[in-house]
Amino acid sequence: MKRILVADDEEKIREVIKEYAQFEGYEVAEAENGMEAVEMCRQNDFDAVVLDVMMPKLDGFSACKEIKKLKDIPVLMLSARGEEYDKLFGFEIGIDDYVVKPFSPKELMARLNVIISRNNKAEEKKDLLEYGGLVIDIPARNVFVDGVRVDLTPKEYDLLFYFAKNKNIALSREKLLCDVWGYDFYGDDRTVDTHIKMLRSRLGKYRDYIVTLRSLGYKFEPQEGGEFKK
Predict the structure, then answer these.
(1) Which pTM value belongs to this model?
(2) Do the Cβ atoms of 228 and 220 come closer than 8 Å?
(3) Mode of pairing for the β-strands spanning 75-79 and 48-52
(4) Which residues form the signal peptide (predicted)?
């Protein structure tokens, strides 16, 4: 079940939003001021936060800044002030939408649904690493070469994933042994070289993405696109 936090010092507004949100299947938590909202976000995970601008102890803009430092949570800002300056300032500090009071609860929920859906899609994309025709599906631990799934051993996948996280960074054999196999692994450089050889063979035409650095180790140097986002 999706969870949202509604932070507003007006109880009636919290009740209205809670009623509509629960009707759409959301679990709703409430905060009466900005400080409480920040602390609740520190201790809990939410799919979105609704923040009123004018709140005691800590205003909505300041609360948003603090929340964004803690977690990347979508924020919908509520305010009785509809001036362009306030809206632009809100977007500059990272809010996802701005709704002016008085508001339609149905419209607010529609906007809330949009930003949550948009954030979920963005998170899904972060779970994929794409380098041209080489795709690494992180949650499923699958690798695709030009749309065809290739079977890797668990250690080969760990090695490829580690390379992707450290793209364009020179990695010694000793560091690969320590970080991929574990510091207590009993083995030598030949273990790394053997697995690299097998991994390259499975990557087909993308084998050259793994570059050999003479007298040092290896570097993952994809020639097109791709970046690690999570």
Answers:
(1) 0.56
(2) no
(3) parallel
(4) none
pLDDT, mean of residues 52-68: 94
Q: DSSP labels for 186-213?
A: ---HHHHHHHHHHHHHHHGGGGGGEEEE
Mean local confidence (pLDDT), 102-127: 83
Listed residue (217, 124, 209, 125) closest to 176, CA to CA: 217
Query: Are residues 16 and 105 in contact, defined by beta-carbon separation less than 8 angstroms?
Result: yes
Q: What is the bridge-based pairing of β-strands 128-131 and 134-137?
A: antiparallel
Q: What is the DSSP string of the chain?
A: --EEEEE-S-HHHHHHHHHHHHHTT-EEEEESSHHHHHHHHHHS--SEEEEESS-SSS-HHHHHHHHHHH----EEEEES---HHHHHHHHHTT-SEEEESS--HHHHHHHHHHHHHHHHHHHHHHTEEEETTEEEETTTTEEEETTEEE---HHHHHHHHHHHHTTT--EEHHHHIIIII-TT----HHHHHHHHHHHHHHHGGGGGGEEEETTTEEEE--SS------
Residue 190 has pLDDT above 60, yes or no: yes
Residue 230 has pLDDT above 60, yes or no: no
Cα distance between residue 144 and residue 133, in whole Å: 8
